[in-house]
């Protein structure tokens, strides 16, 4: 009985230690969310954007915010908030800002592959949104940055295949296929003499 109690306590401790590390913002309790928002270490622009005191737009402040939200150097306990806010920008972006979002989708996935891909697997709206942004991004990159293969789709596909950890292969294949379909559509549109269409088209 004593050993059973010790085992239960050990699991309880581990659960508390990592209770926000792999959860998404909407899965956190109000208390956990408030603790994160009240942290003195939280970037002020992140806090202001969360409370809608500033808006995402096609400007330097927004691009710096996007760099922060998608950085590899994110404290794992802040990842849920930053991913949540990044998705808010993805969902609301239009015009010139929407044409830049694909680069940040790429960074977010490569920097936090398992966390992001699990979310996309469970959320079809964002799965399609990311594949749309990424298709546009890779068509531009492979045209402009011919020699920078790390910016190309094949590099991205190989990376997430290796970094996906517990994400099912079936979803990875589906996600990559959707990106490729978007790329093919844009390339065909461009080759037919049409202007490279915007993300929302």
Task: Please give a structural write-up.
The protein is built from eleven helices and no strands. It folds into two domains: 28-96, no CATH class; 99-194, no CATH class. Helix 7 packs across helix 9, helix 9 crosses helix 11 and helix 10 (153-163) packs antiparallel against helix 11. The protein has 201 residues and is mainly alpha-helical. Helix content is 67%, strand content 0%. Mean pLDDT is 86; it is low at 1-19. The longest helix has 23 residues, at 169-191. The protein is globular and about 50 Å long.
Blueprint of the fold:
Layout: H1 2-17, H2 30-37, H3 44-50, H4 60-69, H5 79-92, H6 95-98, H7 101-111, H8 113-122, H9 124-144, H10 153-163, H11 169-191
User: What is the beta-strand fraction?
Assistant: under 5%
Percent of residues in helices? 55-70%
- Biggest β-sheet strands, sense, barrel: none
Q: What does the overall shape look like?
A: globular
List the total number of helices.
11
How much is the average pLDDT? 86
Q: Give the uncertain stretches in residue-range form.
A: 1-19
Rg over alpha carbons: 19 Å
Number of strands: 0
Query: How many structural domains can be distinguished in the coordinates?
Result: 2
- Helix vs. strand class: mainly alpha
- In whole angstroms, the N-to-C terminal distance is 64 Å
Q: Tell me the series of helices and strands, N- to C-terminal.
A: HHHHHHHHHHH
